[in-house]
Write a structure and sequence with these properties.
Elements: E1 13-16, E2 22-25, H1 57-79, H2 85-92, H3 98-111, H4 113-120, H5 125-144, H6 149-177, H7 180-209, H8 217-236, H9 250-255, H10 259-278, H11 288-309, H12 324-327, H13 330-360, H14 365-370, H15 373-393, H16 396-415, H17 423-440, H18 443-456, H19 459-499, H20 507-514, H21 520-523, H22 527-559
Antiparallel strand pairs: 1-2
InterPro entries: MFS (IPR011701), MFS_dom (IPR020846), MFS_trans_sf (IPR036259)
Subcellular location: Membrane
Family: Belongs to the major facilitator superfamily. TCR/Tet family.
């Protein structure tokens, strides 16, 4: 294994601590070129200069490939439950808990972002990355062996935590060991890998669910992939030391983490998820339990704000939220918003396009999943295109504007879809939506890290903005899934109940049919009534694209608040900072 990468210090630099204040440091000699670290990023570049990557050749190819595979398995598990839900109902007969199988993963991911980012700032990047993989694989094994739905849900939450650690590790690697001009391409590659995994999720899950291997191998497959990649993770991934405070011991920094903030924020998000999961299908909206959960959620969010603002049980340096220059930087705030809302246009099509084709065309699980390919292909192509285009046109606001327009057009078109819409039209609409989303959804990671490094020269700040981008994306992913799920359950149930009024079906039977987890009800209907029932469901699905329309418009509006500047200023006197 390689020695830990150390920072090059071949000239006098200005570094910043967590508060953003400068402190001068002078180096007397350069360090070996085989080394780099988050600390080594704590350098302010000469005007217009860029930093170069230090790892090349087959070693870099192996490193990048192993990281992309990590992004792929993260994407795979994000959508793996989409097409195994009927099998889970058959196995456990717990329809009321089914939503948690889908939301448990993003909930675990979201709640672990800030703690994970804090731990990445303490421990070596390689060890944190491998530890995250171990957690993810252990949770996958638990899901595969789950004897009950409750155990499966617990496994999904822990898998989300491990998956988030993997994703943060990949972001940090590509943010810290690539040059400014190539970073966009490599981070865009993450989006492509994630997208491939996301489209394979329903296909792989559906294939296993309908095979003798059963749905359990939809989770066990992660263990096989990890075993194949293990040599690359262990022997080829470079060690990268975290930047920041080196005066305190690792144990002291670990104890000093903002555990109170993490606990309060996690409690707030869990209660928020519970109320949007149970209210409606399980509890009436005016039920005492629903009201109590809303109250608890509000109290926990208020307590989190108070604890962070008044620094209760923490300090400025250690608190959960990043410093002001990272958190409320005007450009960064706009980037956070655009990254967040674009997540809607990934998960709404991923979850509801297959469901649409299952109802409208009677597709099998596999057929419905394959119909996602046009959307995913253009999502991935848009991601790669925007990453490659960024250093060429240099005006990132223009890419966001184009993406917002395409997203809005595609979303409006998807809103018009009904059970009689020809598949080729649906493909075309989804291509517009996928291309626009691809332009936007990962672009913020590159721009945010480049802008922050230009501003502060701090590798630690680069990690912070990457974490905030991830928080924005995963947070809105969870929220859009919860809101979309509520819309689907309530609208489809209401529409279908009208069609089936007076026929003697129970609420549970109608809800299961509306969710696509039971075909017995539809099979019992006559042709005319079955057509009405399908129209009722597809009408509900089309309404969910209101969320996508709002997201596309939000990106267009947010573009107005971006500075109309060049991302990479013209280099003066050919000054280029290299770490070689």
């Amino acid at each position: 294994m390689e020695p830990p990468l150390e920072p090059p210090k071949s000239f006098q630099t200005a570094s910043r601590d967590g508060s953003g204040e400068k402190s001068d440091t002078t180096s007397k000699s350069p360090v070996d070129s085989s080394s780099l670290s988050g600390e080594g990023m704590d350098e302010v570049l000469p005007d217009g200069a860029t930093r170069e990557r230090t790892i090349h050749g087959w070693k870099w190819a192996a490193t990048a490939a192993s990281l992309y595979i990590g992004a792929l398995i993260y994407g795979l598990d994000s959508t793996i439950v989409v097409d195994i839900q009927p099998a889970l109902i058959d196995q456990f007969d717990e329809f009321e808990s089914l939503t948690w199988a889908g939301t448990g993963f993003p909930l675990g991911s979201f709640c672990s972002i800030l703690p994970g980012a804090a731990l990445y700032a303490i421990f070596d990047l390689k060890y944190m990355f491998i530890g995250s993989i171990i957690l993810f694989e252990a949770a996958s094994a638990l899901c595969g062996a789950a004897p009950t739905m409750d155990v499966l849900i617990v496994g999904r939450v822990f898998a989300g935590m491990g998956g988030n650690g993997i994703f943060l590790g990949i972001l940090n690697y590509f943010s810290l060991i690539t040059s400014d001009t190539e970073r966009g391409r490599y981070i865009s590659g993450m989006g492509v890998s994630w997208g491939i995994g996301a489209v394979l999720g329903p296909v792989v899950g559906g294939a296993f669910a309908t095979s003798p291997a059963t749905w359990r191998w939809a989770f066990y497959i992660n263990l096989v992939i990890a075993a194949i990649c293990a040599p690359a993770y262990i022997f080829w991934l470079p060690k990268v030391k975290p930047g920041g405070d080196h005066q305190r011991s690792t144990l002291t920094k670990l104890v000093s983490l903002d555990w109170a903030g993490f606990i309060l924020a996690t409690g707030a998000m869990v209660s928020f998820t519970m109320v949007l999961t149970f209210a409606g299908p399980t509890w009436p909206w005016n039920d005492k339990r629903t009201i109590a959960l809303f109250v608890v959620t509000g109290i926990l969010f208020v307590l989190t704000f108070v604890q962070q603002y008044f620094l209760l049980f923490t300090t400025v340096a250690d608190r959960m939220v990043p410093p002001k220059h990272v958190l409320i930087n005007p450009t960064q705030l706009v980037l956070y918003v655009m990254t967040a809302v674009s997540a809607t246009n990934i998960y709404v099509p991923l979850f509801y396009l297959p469901l649409y084709f299952s109802f409208a065309r009677g597709d099998s699980t596999m057929q419905a999943a394959v119909r996602l390919l046009p959307f995913i292909a253009f999502l991935a192509s848009g991601t790669m295109f925007s990453g490659s285009l960024l250093p060429k046109i240099n005006y990132y606001w223009a890419i966001y504007l184009a993406g917002g327009i395409l997203m809005t057009a595609g979303s409006v078109a998807m809103y018009t879809v009904n059970s009689d819409t020809l598949p080729q039209y649906v493909y075309g609409y989804s291509i517009l939506l996928g291309a626009g989303t691809g332009f936007v959804f990962n672009l913020g990671f590159s721009i945010a890290s480049i802008k922050m490094f230009q501003q502060t020269g701090s590798g630690l700040d680069v990690q912070r903005v990457s974490s905030m981008q991830n928080l924005s994306q995963l947070g809105w992913q969870l929220i859009s899934l919860l809101i979309g799920g509520q819309m689907m359950q309530e609208l489809s149930y209401r529409n279908l109940a009208k069609v089936l009024d007076g026929m003697g079906f129970s609420e549970k039977e109608i809800r299961k049919a509306a969710a696509g987890t039971s075909s017995q009800l539809f099979d019992s209907l006559g042709a005319s009534l079955q057509k009405e029932a399908i129209n009722a469901i597809t009408d509900a699905i089309s309404k969910i694209y209101i969320l996508s329309i709002i997201s596309g418009v939000a990106v267009i509006v947010a573009t107005l608040f971006l500075p109309k500047e060049k991302l990479f200023p013209k280099v003066k006197n050919s000054d280029t900072l290299t770490t070689v």
